[in-house]
Amino acid sequence: MRPWRRFARRGHGGPRAGVASSTFVNLSMPRRRTLRAALAVVVVSVAIVAAPSPARAAAPGDCADGSPSCVAATIATMRARFAPLGRSCAHNAVFALTYLRTTQTYEWARDQPGFFTDPAWVNHEDAVFARLYFDAYDSWAAGARLRTPGAWLVAFDAARGRKVTAAGNLLLGMNAHINRDLPHALAAVGLTRPDGSSRKPDHDKVNDFLAAVLAPLQVELTARLDPTGLATGLPPDSAFQLILGWREQAWRYAERLVSAPNPVARALVAAEIEAHATAQAVLYAGLAAYVPPLSTPAARDAHCAVHNGDQPPAYPFGTPPPY
């Protein structure tokens, strides 16, 4: 609701009414315009400060040629990053493992004849998308909290503090990566082909391999990391629909980023993305929180200490090694 509409409901006129309130009655038209312009500058300034700079939002130079080898390099980086988290039973291992297995499944899907119409573009997106996660984690790990997006701060802090269940770690990571990172990644790599046609069919095709990875991923996360808290509270189909809804919204946000007429308008969209993703993170962190002494991470950590190196199940791409 716009602020002037609140005033109207309380008996004051909005900006289109003849008389707004005693405050506005004494202002000449030029002074009113000056005040409104000043307020607009304040709002825009806040938005620009809150939003990441375009350079930090996404780096379109990652795998710009769409080489297939880029995905293999990304997977190697993900494996190297997951290994110490998994062996130490860090709660950040939940999303790290999820993202690794998802990317391995993507590589398999990409190599299926006809799966994507433009695999090079999706390879490019995959690299840019992963870089946003790597950069967010590295900023957080280095203590650079002002450089870490809000949704990721909530996710990483909750994991380090062992505050939420594995389902919470999973939802927080997916929320930050899809609701916050994905619009910026899509905007960076471009939403249309050189002929002007939309790349959305390939974006939507990702949903197919995501559906294929969910079942074995749940088995692996439960068996290796947390048998007590992986349930999200949603039926599997509902959880998947939630992800699909986030991905659709990410595309729409990317459209708004790309079509923004100037840097200020783009900064406002970026600020909206940040605010939405962070609000979702706070919500899920509360819903999935342990409530001592009724629930704690003790059983989860004890199980992981014994089973973190267990053999993973078979995925569409094959049976991977634990690390």
Q: What features would you describe in this structure?
A:
InterPro entries: DUF5995. Pfam families: DUF5995. The structure is a single chain. The protein has 323 residues and is an all-alpha fold. It folds into two domains: 48 residues; 253 residues, no CATH class. The chain has 13 helices and no strands. Helix 7 packs across helix 9 and helix 11 packs antiparallel against helix 12. The chain starts with a helix and ends in a 16-residue tail after the last helix. The N terminus is likely disordered.
Topology of helices and strands:
Blueprint lengths: L2 H7 L12 H4 L3 H22 L3 H4 L11 H19 L5 H18 L8 H23 L8 H11 L5 H24 L10 H25 L11 H24 L3 H25 L10 H10 L16
Pfam family, one: DUF5995
Short description:
The protein has 13 helices and no strands.
Summary tags:
single chain, 323 residues, mainly alpha, 13 helices, globular
Helix and strand sequence: HHHHHHHHHHHHH
Overall average pLDDT: 85
Continuous helix count:
13
Integer count of domains:
2
Distance between the termini: 50 Å
The biggest beta sheet reads: none
Q: Please state the structural category.
A: mainly alpha
Radius of gyration: 23 Å
Low-confidence stretches: 1-56
| Overall 3D shape | globular
Helical residue percent?
Answer: 55-70%
The amount of beta strand, in percent, is under 5%
- Count the E strands: 0
InterPro entries: DUF5995 (IPR046037)
Pfam families: DUF5995
